[in-house]
Write a structure and sequence with these properties.
single chain, about 450 residues, Rossmann fold, GMP Synthetase, Chain A, domain 3, 3 domains, six-stranded mixed sheet, about 20% strand, elongated, GTP-binding, ribosome biogenesis, GTPase_Der, GTP binding, repeat
């Protein structure tokens, strides 16, 4: 499951500056950077370009000895999985702290991979510290690269070597034909389980501890010729519960994940029902004009009769009256119930989100709608719609040329939207309207 892009993994023991390096190479703050070992717990993906070549960069949790801690153990497994996936490995060590026993253990693991390993000695912030790199020759991984992630020193030479080591036959071109899907919702609603089920492998840490997935995790894969980018986000919590600085970064990242998605899966815990938190997540997705699908997870845990499904759907429609367009899927990531419907619905909603209709067909529908129900009037003046045109996609945007903006009314816009949907669909996506006054006398 890959878009055949070169994959570069950034690994090393905790707190050597892996995430700082990752963020610098990615060109934006994606990984959480906090001076606390173990903050980056899952693998984080980003697309990076150097010398007109694109590759996928993975940040990882630190590789540590397995001491029985459930999170540390899974961090180590995730880092090892990233190493297995990668074509090239950047092994980051701390030039200020010097060579450690933990560095030697990691080097021993990496030598067994038989993959290109580039040794990056980080925190070499000035020429006076260059002598600090020589101890690292002992690791037997070739010439060390002296870098300072914080000051962007030495990164060009490191990236030159990364690109030089790309295996032949991989795709380094940029491809826009990718459906970007953000998986959002409350903590422990089952977002990571859904992602793992879709991918068919244990790609994201899944644990019953709330807040386990702190970062947004990008996963590229392909199915039936369609490329996807799945973004598993940290759960968006109520602001009153966002105490830690690290937690605040996660909330911001969840919102930014929605911003860069084409389709947003709003995961609801069936055992809890629709909560205030769910309405906030959905509101963000709706306001951003994204394709939206409600995923009611843990459906296997609900006692059912012949009215359960209808009642639950009715509750969602009542709680989200502004999102009547969004499909609702009832699934169980645990038992695989209806999980095959998710990607099928994502494909459909993505195509609706990008749909464009002809100006003539649109105006036929608008003309018929106006004949059936005249626009509102105010003090003897009636709204006139001269013509309309679709002026955007993702989300679909319609510009209506009219006589006076002050005569527009939300209820009539809703009526026009319903008529447009009846004729053209646009299921799963909001539609937007813009009004322009034509030939207004001044």
């Amino acid at each position: 499951m890959s878009d055949n892009r070169p994959i570069v993994a950034v690994v090393g023991r905790p707190n050597v500056g892996k995430s700082t390096l990752f963020n610098k190479l990615a060109g934006k703050r994606i990984s959480i950077v906090e001076d606390t070992p173990g903050v980056t717990r899952d693998r984080i993906f980003a697309e990076v370009e150097w010398l007109n070549k694109y590759f996928t960069l993975i940040d990882t949790g630190g590789i540590e000895k397995d001491n029985g801690d459930v999170i540390l153990s899974q961090m180590r497994n995730q880092a090892m999985l990233a190493v297995d996936m990668a074509h090239i490995i950047i092994f980051v060590v701390d030039g200020k702290a010097g060579l450690t026993a933990a560095d030697k253990e990691v080097a021993q693991i990496l030598r067994k991979t038989n993959k290109p390993v580039l040794l990056a000695v980080n925190k070499i912030d000035s020429i006076n510290q260059m002598d600090n790199i020589y101890d690292f020759y002992e690791l037997g991984l070739g010439n060390p690269y002296a870098i300072s992630s914080a000051n962007s020193m030495g990164l060009g030479d490191l990236l030159d070597e990364v690109v030089e080591n790309f295996p032949k036959g991989l795709n380094t071109e940029y491809d826009e034909d990718i459906i970007r899907v953000a998986i959002t919702g409350k903590p422990n609603a089952g977002k990571s389980s859904i992602l793992n089920n879709i991918l068919g492998e244990n790609r994201v840490i899944v644990s019953p501890i709330a807040g386990t997935t702190r970062d947004a995790i990008d996963t590229y894969f392909e199915k039936d010729g369609q490329q996807y980018l799945l973004i598993d986000t940290a759960g968006i919590r109520r602001k009153s519960k966002v105490y830690e600085r690290v937690e605040k970064f996660s909330v911001i990242r969840s919102m930014s994940a929605v911003e860069r998605a084409d389709v947003v899966l709003i995961v609801i815990d069936a055992t809890e029902g629709v909560t205030e938190q769910d309405t906030k997540v959905a509101g963000i997705a709706h306001d951003e004009g994204k394709g939206c699908i409600f995923i009611v997870n843990k459906w296997d845990l609900i006692e059912k009769d012949n009215k359960t499904l209808g009642n639950y759907t009715k509750e969602i429609r009542e709680k989200f009256p502004f999102m009547m367009y969004a499909p609702v899927l009832f699934v169980s990531a645990l038992t695989n119930q209806r999980m095959n419907k998710i990607l099928e619905t994502v494909d459909y909603v993505a195509s609706e989100h990008a749909k464009r209709v002809s100006t003539s067909a649109l105006n036929d529908v608008i003309g018929e709608a106006v004949m059936l129900n005249q626009p509102p009037s105010d003090k003897g003046r009636r709204l006139k719609i001269y013509y309309g045109s679709q002026t955007g996609t993702k989300p679909p945007k319609f510009t209506l040329f009219i006589n006076d903006k002050q005569l527009t009314h939300f209820s009539y816009q809703r009526y026009l939207e319903n008529k447009i949907r009846e004729n053209f669909g646009f299921e799963g996506t909001s539609v937007q309207f813009e009004y322009r006054e034509k030939n207004k006398r001044r």
